[in-house]
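ok so for the tutorial part 2 we go from a plain amino acid sequence to predicted structure tokens. step 1 is just haveing the sequence, like this:
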Amino acid sequence: MGSSGAGKTSLLNVIACRIGVGEDQGKLWANNKNYNYEDFGDFANYVMQADVLMAFMTVRETLTFAANLKLDCSQAEKD
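step 2 — the prediction. this is what the tokens look like for a chain of 79 residues:
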């Protein structure tokens, strides 16, 4: 929580690798271990407030669509 301009969205964008920072800027820790940006999707996801959803899709169809894009596993596991 914080006032407008405090950096809340910027922090989330850095953590989710939506914007970059230099390697020497510091380290990010999650779940008590240092992580790199490629590992972010293994433990968290970030949905922006203005995320675009297809108005013609049901909630299940939307989640299935996202799972098919993101996950590398069997269809049964995605379901």
